[in-house]
Write the structure tokens for this entry.
Amino acid sequence: MTKLADKTTEVIPSQGYKLEEQELSQLLLQLNDWQIDQSTPEQQLVHGFKFRNFSEALGFTNQIGELAEQADHHPSIQLEWGKVTVRWWTHKIGGLHINDFILAARTDQAFEEKGQ
Amino acid sequence: MTKLADKTTEVIPSQGYKLEEQELSQLLLQLNDWQIDQSTPEQQLVHGFKFRNFSEALGFTNQIGELAEQADHHPSIQLEWGKVTVRWWTHKIGGLHINDFILAARTDQAFEEKGQ
């Protein structure tokens, strides 16, 4: 099976395919501790990453920025001292698309490589 | 009168000086449309800056990061496509310190210089 992070993101039509609850649960298992935030108007995939200081957190923000630009799909990133919270979702379809899981997996991958 | 952005930030003792309502109102006048968010556990100075795309927003995030590192005082920055929301406050004193206004003024200055 192709690793989630290695999958190609799809071009999203304005009426794209929104994932169902069962699919969401299965895809979540392929990520490291991401949650689905149900409190926002549109479901979002969210995860907080910890760092030793502000500078490392900013470095990671830039890495995610690069991933986002490459895929032309952009998250919301909250940057604080020692912490980066990343949220992926697809505004066009008002929820979660496979692309969000692919980008979340790439975010995990970037974080793991940083620690090596 | 020294411009707010040119003032030197103070070292904050653990029992630092928290600004009073009247001082907050006067200092707010020296900033460009910042708001005081009262909905957070600690008062925060907040302002959203708009950009043409994600890349410009990320560039501004890095500029603010540089200001923060120079002053050793760090905000919360929310980065989205075309928008950066900056929040300054001083956790040590549980609210707003003159340093937060100085850094907010420097944030304004960085934004203005970007537009030139």
Q: What stands out?
A: The mean pLDDT of chain B is 92. The beta strands of chain B are 35-37, 44-50, 76-80, 83-88.
